[in-house]
Design a protein that fits this description.
globular, about 130 residues, alpha+beta
Length: about 130
């Protein structure tokens, strides 16, 4: 398991089948992607998990589009990626983080010190809640 910077295209290769398989691949691209930091986990030469960090200001960011290929879910790859990203951001002085979590994943993010904030909302029929860590 290796934490690494990845390209946007590598992220799209994971985002699409995991997050929106019913949509065209390009629907997995979001505003700001070209300026975001993209991180992943490599296993046996293959990127199996990725997420993107969108800087909001020098000490604040939003983590978006976290996805792990189905065959690798539940095996620690996502947790490793998330923890490694948090450590990387902290080393760069980024200590205010937020993300929009699918409500089914709230427990995962709480393990890393995130807490829900605000009302739940829907995007493309999926329920989310904003989570923060300061």
């Amino acid at each position: 398991m290796e934490f690494t910077r990845v390209t946007l295209e590598q992220c799209l290769d994971i985002r699409h089948p995991v997050l929106w398989p019913q949509l065209p691949r390009e629907a997995s691209r979001v505003d700001g992607d070209n300026d975001a930091l993209h991180f992943g986990v490599q296993h046996e030469g293959v990127i199996v998990s990725c997420l993107s960090v969108f800087m909001l200001e020098a000490s604040a960011c939003q983590i978006r589009k976290f996805a792990t290929l189905e065959a690798f879910q539940g095996k620690g790859f996502g947790g490793f990626l998330f923890q490694s990203t948090l450590e990387n951001m902290a080393a760069d002085g980024v200590n205010n983080l937020c993300l929009d979590a699918r409500t089914s994943a709230v427990g995962f993010y709480e393990k890393f010190g995130f807490r829900p904030e605000g009302e739940r909302f829907f995007k493309q029929g999926v329920e989310y809640v904003r989570m923060v860590r300061c």
